[in-house]
Amino acid sequence: MSETRVYTRTGDDGQTGLFGGPRVSKDDPRLEAYGTVDELNSTIGVASSALGEHADLVGWLQIVQSDLFDIGGELATPDLEERIRKGQPTGPRVTDEDVAKLEGWIDAMDTEIEPLTRFILPGGTPASAHLHVARTVCRRAERRVLTLARDAEVAPTVLRYLNRLSDCLFTMARVANARAGVPEPEWLGRAERDGK
Predict the structure, then answer these.
(1) What residues does each domain of the chain span?
(2) What is the pTM of this model?
(3) HEC string of 91-154?
(4) What is the pLDDT of residue 7?
């Protein structure tokens, strides 16, 4: 039986191979984009592990993690649209239905929380704090994908998905606090802080 190793030594020179494409530097904008999506996926895994009894939120996040894996594959494939036109193999892609799914979750969670009247600070329960970290990594992933899209073909659905996901993670962080009965930390203006 052949042994599969984690290490290949092929990236020791700072280069890596793209799906069906050339080798590129590991700091290439394409690598920055899908590497940050991978970081987001891992960060969501940490947040999910802190959610405990919230099976619905954990289940949603597992779906998101699979979606992000698909996005990573999509971003790792140069000339994706050309491959599709030629009938060449590609991995799964996120769709407008996936974006709508996130919106549906946000609408459902909104029924559990009070409307915002002030800016809130990341924090509260550990689960909420982790979800806020995931939200900020999601925003960075969106920025990295936008940078890539300036010079390469990127499906607009990917940017829509990441934009909506950050809203979903924000709402989920608020729900985690609400379900635990933990007040959300609020931003205090300079005068309020000076008065304390």
Answers:
(1) 24-179
(2) 0.85
(3) CCCCCHHHHHHHHHHHHHHHCCCCCCCCCECCCCCHHHHHHHHHHHHHHHHHHHHHHHHHHCCC
(4) 47
Provide the CATH topology of domain 24-179: Hypothetical Protein Ta1238; Chain: A; (1.20.1200)
The closest alpha carbon to 132, from 181, 91, 169, 95, belongs to 169
Q: What's the one-letter identity of residue 194?
A: D
Residue 145's identity, in one-letter code, is: V
Q: Which amino acid is at 157?
A: T
Residue 49 confidence (pLDDT): 96
Cα gap 49→61, rounded to integer Å: 10
* 159 vs 117: CA distance, rounded Å: 28
* Span 94-151, pLDDT tens digits: 999 999 999 999 999 999 999 988 899 999 999 999 999 999 999 999 999 999 999 8
Q: What are phi and psi of 24, to 5 degrees?
A: -135, 165
* CA atoms of 6 and 73, how far apart (whole Å): 19
